[in-house]
Amino acid sequence: MSEESWLKGTKNVDYLKLRAGWGQIGNDQVDESAFVQSISTPGPYFVGYVLGSNQSTLPGAAVLSQANENGRWETSEQWNVGFDFGFFNNLLTGSLEGYIRDTKDAILSVTAPAHVGNMWAMSANLGTIRNMGLELTLGHQNSAGDFTYGIDANIAFAKNEMMYMNGGSADYGDRTKTDVGLPVRSFWGYNYLGVYRSDDEAAAHLPNSTNAVNAGDAKYEDLNSDGKIDESDCEVIGNPFPWLTGSLNFTAGYYGFDLQIFFQGVYGNQIYNALRERTEGTGQTCTLSTTMSDVFIYYNQDKRDAMTAAGIDWESIMAQYDGNIPNPYGNSNNNSTSSRFIEDGSYLRLKNVTLGYTLPKRITQKAKINRVRFYVTANNLLTLTKYSGYDPEVGGGVDYGNYPQSRTFMFGLNLDF
Fold first, then answer.
1. Torsion-angle region of residue 88: left (phi > 0), alpha (psi -120 to 50) or beta?
2. Which end is more exposed in the chain, N or C (fewer Cβ atoms within 10 Å of the end residue's Cβ)?
3. What is the DSSP-derived secondary structure letter of residue 210?
């Protein structure tokens, strides 16, 4: 566009280009095991059933996952339109691009019914996924005497949505739901309201509950107001996809010194803290929660009387454990998937800082060396986040407490002969 007669010569417009594109590509990079049935034959580990009266186990086989017998390639189709530009003697360069990408017959893991074998999830062509967004890239390079610097920034807005389900019905995974109109693998569970402070509060909130609910148990929102908590009270409680991602890279040089600083971050996504789910779970699956000061412990009247008779000050104990974490020895429903474990996954991370110094050539040439550069690099130096886990960069939005990215420091020497 900048070469067109109606725009050429315009002040402060050095380069302007309009571009648009369409493309379609098939993805055949799929593990071949997705199209075969997985069977295990280690004997009683998976089977473990006994026949006859002597209770002895017999060799056998167990189906781990079903085959995707009618599997097809994923097909991605993308439309994009954008501008490339350079303004003010190319002191400001960049691009602005919008895109829509539809992935048809997307291959994802799905849960099969137990009676057909579902030790492992099977792969299937689940449906059509749409990713759409807007990306802005800006760059600035300049110098002032012997000082040079450059700034490159990238901001991307994105939305993920399931457009069509091949089977016509939603797919429920571990803590997730995939359905038309929702982001893929949206977190699905109860809305956590806190802890019941008394037995009377629990009875008033859930008069029709089939399970005993007492003080210290988790309180969930009764969405349909039927006086009990069941699957019909589940809702979308989080989205693992950030709607905003960005990065900033700064470089500078002065005489022999060079500096590079790189920031990266995301905003708007949620993380399911499965590590908290485990450590704050039932008394059978954790020990940490029983010593946490913010666990709610409640004793009924019979327990109070027994403790009083034994000379135990139950009031001071209850006051010490008057927190917002459900009693780990209480209702088994206390550890259900809920918004209790959903946290803000947004973060800004200083990914890399490198400082270097290159010796003057008048020194290196005496040793017949073309270039000598000393440098120090620090990775993952700083992370700003509200997330309580080890690391907000987790795959799939579920944090099982994997080892976080390490903060590293490296010293180096570059020699060019």
1. left
2. C
3. S
